[in-house]
């Protein structure tokens, strides 16, 4: 089973989401994604974006989802 949570860099922060992806393993730049912390953000899929700091609320939510999926 694939990992249920994906990371979505947006607005200088890496959020997490369980939203379905249209293709591939990432959200293409410009995709509107609902994050685990409750925001609607526009994904930025660039090399630098993956170095942005992790959203603390999304990290907590992602960890809970990952644990419950086992
Ligand atoms: Zn977040």
Chemical compounds bound to the protein: zinc ion
What is the string of SSEs from the N terminus onward? Answer: EEEEH
Q: How many structural domains?
A: 1
C-alpha termini separation: 10 Å
Tally the helices: 1
How many beta strands in the DSSP annotation?
A: 4
The average pLDDT is 90
Spatial order of the strands in the main sheet? 1-2
Radius of gyration: 11 Å
Strand content: 15-25%
Silhouette: globular
- Specify the structural class: alpha+beta
Helix content: 10-25%
Poorly predicted tracts of residues = none
Largest sheet, in brief, is: 2 strands, antiparallel
Descriptive notes:
The chain has 70 residues and is an alpha+beta fold. It has one domain (6-68). It contains one helix and four strands; from the N terminus they run E-E-E-E-H. Strand 3 and strand 4 (40-42) form a beta hairpin. The protein is globular, with a radius of gyration of 11 Å. It starts with 5 loop residues before the first strand and ends with a helix. The structure holds zinc ion. Residues 15, 35, 37, 55, 57-58 line the site of zinc ion (ZN).
